[in-house]
Amino acid sequence: MTKVTVCGAAGGIGQPLSMLLKLNAQVSQLALYDIVNAAGVAADLSHINTPAQVVGYLPKSKDDKDTIKEALKGSDLVVIPAGVPRKPGMTRADLFNINALIVRDLVANAAQACPQAAILIISNPVNATVAIAAAVLKKLGVFNPRKLFGVTTLDSVRAETFLGGLIGEDPASLKGKISVVGGHSGDTIVPLIHFDKTIAAKVKALPEQAYKDFVHRVQFGGDEVVKAKNGAGSATLSMAYAGYRFSEYVLNSLANKEIPFSIPESSYVHLLGIGASSLSQKLGGPEFFSVPVILRNGQVQSSLDPFSLVQTEQEKQMIETAVKGLLTSISQGTSFVEGLKL
Ligand SMILES: NC(=O)C1=CN([C@@H]2O[C@H](COP(=O)(O)OP(=O)(O)OC[C@H]3O[C@@H](n4cnc5c(N)ncnc54)[C@H](O)[C@@H]3O)[C@@H](O)[C@H]2O)C=CC1
Ligand SMILES: O=C([O-])CC(=O)C(=O)O
Question: Which ligand has the nearest atom to the CA of 220?
Fold first, then answer.
């Protein structure tokens, strides 16, 4: 019996992500929470012929504090794509003011209703919202760092797609052969693509500019979608796929399924809390960093040191640059929660 709750389930990401979760036969209960249209999305998905029982949860009023708790009660996995997306001209950091409050409230409710759940944060700016979630859970005395995940999978999905196109490989075959670490915005995103010898040889055969363009495209892939949608939001469908890919990894670990890749999925996690404090020191002190994580039973069992995947001076420098950006975002998230009443 596995219960999954999606918060923000009626949104651009929430709807297709909920559909993918409904297709997973391991899910027995799928709770769809949103402040709009939750019942409609739930009714629609409930007609799909898979085992998950789908229930929509829409708050009855602004002061309704019970519906969200019902949606979260007993959940094993909580996925949070609630919040506002970017419009052209905005950075992810510009979303902080609105999304910080949304994430704070949802995580505070999860802390009470399902303190054992794995929590996946999709809402941007991920570099800061995950720090908010951690600070809230700490304040409420239920922080398990091994179960809090910032979802950075879309960066890996993009890197696989763009590199596959460049070197003439099936993008799907690159999963586990390249890795993306750091954070989830601009130059905090660090693709590492030289540790597999066959891939590295193909990358080295490319003109230097093609490699630079690839890195830039992975780091700013979100902007491409924001621009193309021209005011109608940011990546939703590719993000739903990526969010599902990481959710499925958590669900598989809950079912004790083997990890079929040598280098597992990355996630933006609390380094000290997952037993990687020496990595944090080596990086220059960031509390959070996206690293490949090995999951067991819905939580981080161990992580890989990204420096073991670094092969070039350029990759090392990209990590240094990422750390600078992350330190600022993390302290913004953490100080937002300090002094707040929960
Ligand atoms: N981590 C990542 O790689 C990515 C993150 N994102 C982020 O995901 C978030 C959602 O994006 P979209 O789905 O495109 O936005 P959207 O506006 O289409 O959907 C957001 C949904 O959240 C709901 N919502 C707002 N406040 C809520 C609350 N307090 N409780 C529950 N639901 C609430 C809204 O009603 C809406 O249905 C944005 O912050 C976006 O920047 C987007 C793409 C990639
Ligand atoms: O760019 C955005 O605002 C949405 C996002 O995080 C992405 O597509 O990577």
Answer: 2
Answer yes or no: pTM beyond 0.90: yes
pLDDT score of 211 more than 90: yes
* CATH number listed for the domain at residues 153-333: 3.90.110.10
Q: What residue ranges of the chain are covered by domains with CATH 3.40.50.720?
A: 3-150
In this predicted model, what pLDDT tens digit does every residue of 233-268 receive, in sequence order?
A: 999 999 999 999 999 999 999 999 987 778 999 999
Torsion of CA 6, 36, 231, 238, to 10 degrees: 20
Q: Whose CA is nearest to atom 1 of ligand 1?
A: 122
Question: Is residue 212 helix, strand or coil?
Answer: helix
Residue 4: name the closest of 102, 82, 120, 86 by CA: 120
Q: Where does CATH 3.90.110.10 sit in the chain?
A: 153-333
Three-class DSSP category at 54: strand
What ipTM was predicted for this assembly? 0.99
Q: Which of 61, 84, 229, 247 to mutate to test the pocket of ligand 1 (most atoms within 8 A of CB)?
A: 84
State the average pLDDT over residues 130-145. Answer: 97
Helix (H) or strand (E) holding 295: strand 288-296
> 3-150 architecture in CATH?
3-Layer(aba) Sandwich (3.40)
9 is in an annotated binding site: yes
Which residues line the pocket of ligand 1, CB cutoff 6 A? Answer: 7-8, 10-14, 33-36, 81-86, 95, 99, 102, 106, 122-124, 126, 151, 154, 184, 233-236, 239
Cite the active site residues: 184
**CA dist., res. 194 & res. 130, Å (int):** 29
Q: Measured from the CB, is residue 92 less than 6 Å from ligand 2? A: yes
239 is in an annotated binding site: yes
